[in-house]
Amino acid sequence: MSSETVSGWRRSAAIAVALVLLGTLPLWVGNTYYINIASQILLFAVFALALNVLVGYAGLVSLGHAGLFAIAGYTAALLLQMGYGHLAANSAAVVVTLAASAIFAVLALRSTGIGFLMITLALGQIVWGIAYRWASLTGGDNGINVTTRPAPFGLSLASAPSFYFACLVVFLLALGSMILFVRSPFGASLRGTRDQARRMTALGYDVWLIRFAAIIFSGFWTGISGLLFIYYNQFISPQVAALTASAEVLLMVISGGTATLLGPIAGAVIVVVMKNVVSAYIERWNLVLGVIFIVIITFMPEGLIPGTVRLWRWSWSTLNSRWNGTPEKPAQEDASKEPMPKVPT
Amino acid sequence: MMQQITSAQAVILAINSFALGGLLFLLSAGFSLIFGLMRIPNLMHGAFFMLGAYFGVSLLDWGVNFWVTALLSGLAMAVIGGIIERFLLRRLEGQVLPQVLLTLGFAFIIADVCLMIWTGDPWQPSPPQNLRGAVQAMGMFFPLYRLVVLAVAVAVAIALWILVDWTRLGAMIRAGVDDPAIARVCGIKVSQLFTIVFCLGAALAAFAGVMGAPFLSVYPGLDFEMLPLALIVVILGGTGSLLGALVGSFILGFLYNFGQAMFPDLAYVILFLPMLLILVLRPQGLFGRVVP
Predict the structure, then answer these.
(1) d(CA B119, CA A5)
(2) How many domains is chain A partitioned into structurally?
(3) Contact assessment for residue A214 and residue A50, using Cβ atoms and an 8 Å cutoff
(4) pTM above 0.90?
(5) Helices in A142-206 by DSSP H: which ranges?
(6) With an 8 Å Cβ cutoff, are A291 and B100 in contact?
(7) How far is the C-alpha of B85 from the C-alpha of B120, rounded, in Å?
(8) How far is CA B269 from CA A101, A110, A328, B266, B281, in A?
């Protein structure tokens, strides 16, 4: 058996184990609290995967994605409040979110690099401003309650395990679409526009259109995760559209490692777990978030997981050489040579 | 939902608009220099404004003179900004994403520390004794303090214009921005200059914070309310253009005050409309250069 088939076999086995574990999670976790955290992780993983399309594969850093997330949530919540059904409210929310993504794209793509980031930040703040200040429409700081969860195909999602399975299905669909996207010619041309926009233009690709399509694709899954969120929380408030929310998702994408499929998922696990743990002990989540950002930038520019592995190996080999007196082989530095994707300025 | 306003109200609103415009200029001039000249997306600029305002609150509470307070607060922020730039931001030159994360991280930390120290209650220090009240002219009363804010802003604008366009330091800064490599060859210490610009921007933001505290009041969340405003001003006026920042600030000042009076629900959103228009019609901004 060649080594390639062995690693391929191992890979399939790992995926199968992961699927079985995810599929049976409510059975072996049991506790509702932890099942809910798992649902949270899955829905934020969808959000992080969506943002990663832009940050990782397109090299466009958006700080307004919480705005799109909130647009989906608010549209559905408002329509539900007016008495429309779940199907109508959700379809309308997706359409509105896609339209909003198109507007975001047209405006933000007037620029790349810092300009793109600043424009998306401003657009995100507009959404926050509407949610917070236009109280007669959105209820302002009081938010909107979502009283019921939908029952697709007659299956009620009211209980924690059933909602978890709904999140899992959506998550797997999102992941599948991401795998297809990364392998597709569209994904390849998007990476091309990130690395060599000029050459792509010279080769006859419409760089603007490729980026536009990427934003729409990202906006779609952002909207879907926004819908999951309002059904999970059964409540939406302007907090969802705040800059902190955009920053949190960006942290998920970056902490796991950008431009990978597993990175944003790992990032979602880290951030959601950490947020729940930290919030249980102290009120200072923003402070912790800020410190994590600075620590990542200063010590682990390649992302939390690869960075921790590198630091761990480094400290391990240093300790070993101290104790044994024999110099170990030098710590692996090559991981650190791959910094975050360079954003054209 | 539109509210009617009388002409007397309109005059008062116009004065308030000029005062807010002046304040926004103080805030965004530094942001424009840092963002436009150094290409650093400084997302802690709003946090500098808020922290400066809180410093002002405490210093005024201890009985320090108002103008001394404003200067001290600016000085303190120049030191803090200088340290962050010199030891952390400097190492990330040209890397946008890490710069964004670092400045955003500091913005969150500053916001949370402020919440810890000054609590969640709003503070509204009073303006200096001799500037309270109003002056009477043409049968109307004008709030004195706001006129003073406007005058200070205009003075700072003129000083900055002279600094950047007419002094040796300004020429060196412009050279360092246009072509850092050649400027270095000519013996200009570009990174040192950039630290100076960053300190200046931070100091102006904190100064603006103290000046604005008596009529905006200081409260948690002020930082991320002011940051987008500075952003809009810079997008409106064109990055790196001081004249653009001045004009943009006044446009925003008027939109905010008249919007607040006429469409209270949508006042915040109206602020962003000119930005959207400019992005569509003239992406380089009113006074911006087209970068090749």
Answers:
(1) 61
(2) 1
(3) no
(4) no
(5) 160-183, 185-195, 197-202
(6) no
(7) 29
(8) 18, 20, 60, 5, 19
Q: How far is CA A163 from the centre of its chain?
A: 19
Tokens 């999602």 belong to A157
Residues contacting residue B83 through CB under 8 Å, at least 6 positions apart: none
Q: A134, B231: Cβ pair inside 8 Å?
A: no
Q: Using beta carbons and an 8 Å cutoff, which residues of B are at the interface with A? A: 1, 35, 39, 41, 43, 88, 92, 94-98, 100-102, 104-109, 111-113, 116, 224, 227-228, 231-232, 234-235, 265-269, 271-272, 275-276, 279-280, 283
In a domain, residue A92? The reply is yes
d(CA A39, CA A45): 10
Q: How far is CA B55 from CA B66, B67, B69, B110, in A?
A: 12, 13, 8, 12
Give me the interface pTM, i.e. the ipTM: 0.82
A84 domain-assigned: yes
**Over the stretch B195-209, which tens digit does the pLDDT of each residue have?**
999 999 999 999 999
By residue range, what is the domain housing residue A75? 30-241
At B120-159, the pLDDT tens digits run 889 988 888 777 777 776 666 778 888 899 999 999 999 9
The answer to whether residue A68 is domain-embedded is: yes
d(CA A27, CA A35): 10
Question: d(Cα A111, Cα B182) in Å, to the nearest integer?
Answer: 27
- Calculate how close chain B gets to A20, using CA atoms only, in Å: 36
Q: Is A258 contained in some domain? A: no
A50 touches A216 (CB < 8 A): no
Q: Identify from A111, A125, A137 which residue to disrupt to test chain B contact, counting B C-beta atoms within 10 A and taking the largest count.
A: A125
